[in-house]
C-alpha cells in the first residue's frame, strides 16, 4: 500500500469521535475499493493504539463512568446505554465495559471471567448492556479477540495446505516447541527454497496489515529470533503491508515480505536452482 493512501486513512481515522461499528462502517464507505480485510485490519491497529494512548486505568475514572452509566439507566428510553456512553467519552464500547466492571468487581480475575461471559453478572440490565457493548465492538474486547484468533488460524491452515500441495516438507510450531525452541516461526522448512533468489528457511503467517509500528515490534520480538536460529525466511502479510517496509534494513538480509505464498511453478523452479 502506498504511504499516501495509508496516511489518508490515518488522517480520516483521527477525525472520528467514536469507535463503534457504525462509525467504522461509515469510514469504510470512503475506501470502498480497498479490500474489506485490509481496511478492517488497519482500523484494528489504529483503534488499539488510540486506546493505549488515551485510556488510563484508574478507580477514579471507573467510578466516573459508572456514575454516568447509572444516570443514563434512569432514563426510561435508555436504549443502548453502553454504546451511547462510549460515543460520548470517545472510547471503544468493550473498553468502557472493562472499566465499568472494574468498578463493580474489584477483583481482576473475576473481571476477566465476566467480560468473557456476561451471564455471570447478577444485575440483568447491566449484563444486557455490557453484552451489547462487547458485541458491537469490532476492534477491542473478547469478541474482537476471538474473531482475530480465528482469522489468524484460518490463514495458518491455508498456508499449511499450500505447503503440502507443493510437497514442501516442514516442521510446525508444535514440533519445534517439542524440540525445545521457545520462539518459533509458524513453519520451519525441512529443505530451504529460493524466492526471487532469496533463500527461505522458514515462513511466518500474519493475518493482518503490516505497517511500520507493528512490523518493527515483530522484528524485535519475533523475526530477529527466527533469523538467529534458522537463517533468513519469508513473512506473509496476507492483508497487505506498507510500501516503505520494502526498504527497511532487514529486507533481503533477514527476511522478505509477501502478501501470499509464491505459486507452485515458481517454487518448483526455485527448488531446481538450489540443486
TrEMBL record:
Origin: domain of life: Eukaryota
InterPro entries hit by this protein: CDIN1 (IPR029404)
One GO cellular component term: nucleus
UniProt keyword annotations, A-Z: Cytoplasm, Nucleus
Subcellular location, principal: cytoplasm
Pfam families: TPD
Species, as recorded: Parnassius mnemosyne (clouded apollo)
Coiled-coil regions listed: none
Protein name, as recorded: CDAN1-interacting nuclease 1
